[in-house]
Every structure is written in C-alpha cells, then in structure tokens.
Give the backbone structure.
Amino acid sequence: MLQPFERFKMSYIDNLLNLNKQFLVTQTYSRARGSSNESTGIALLLSDYDDLGLAKIHFKAVINDSYAAIIDLSKPTHKKKLIGMLQPDSKYVLYWAVVKSKIQLEQLVNKKYKDKMRDYITSNTNWRIDRDATMRPSVQLIFGELFIVLKHAKQVIRVKFDELEK
C-alpha cells in the first residue's frame, strides 16, 4: 500500500502558525498500515487549513471517524494535546497530508500502477488508448483521501486511489 505523506514533526507546529494555518483536521489514516516505515500506534492524518470554515467542511466529511477532530493551534489546550500526541510514548503516529514532491509521486503512480489504471479505464470508460501510450496521472487530495485524475482527449475522470490498489 502506497503511503505518500510526511510524518508530522514538532517543528511543523510553529511553521504552520507562522503561515496562519492554525486549524488541523485529524482523521484515521489507514495507509500507514503496511508501509515500510510503519510504527505501532494509532495512525492519524493531519490536514492543515487557514480557514475554520474549510476545516469544518473537511471535519463534516469525516465526522463518522472516531478520531476526527479540529485542532486549533491558537488554543493552548489544543496545542498542548498535539504536542503530547507527538511524544515518543504516545499511542499516536501522526502523518501530515503533504508530500515531498508531487511530481515524484505522480511518476511513481504512473510507473507502479500503469497496468491497473489501464484496466480501470478499459472496464469503466469507453476510452480507446494505445497500449504504448504514456499515461500522465495527477494526484489530488480531497478530505484526506487520495484521488488519481486521468485525462484522455477532453475527458477527465477522478478515481479513488483505493480503487486502483485493489
């Protein structure tokens, strides 16, 4: 299972505050299971926002997740809780919904999941793509969920990455 996101580090807290991204939405992160650098603990994904309204929209999308929450870094109790979650003895393992290089991630997806993308297109669209044509997927993150965007001529489809990994 592909795990593209960065582990969240203590130093990111002040960086986020400096960027006025004080709101973090937490949710269960299942992609951490099975990754090569897996740690034991409850894996959570943190998505940052500078706008409380956007954070609330994300929160409502994952409200059924028992680990869904909005952390407001401007509130000392919230910041203290996050710092506690980052301690070595914490039961949590935190990931940040950020990738080092979107281009590298897209290249990896294209290389590793090329056949699965073609199978998906064949099964779910009427697109006719040459076997040796190179696909150029783009990656999107929506409410903590990875999507692959595939384009052909003027048509576009957005596929949950989980669908391709099956």
Remarks:
- The chain has a mean pLDDT of 90.
- Residues 6-96 form one domain.
- The longest strand covers residues 42-49.
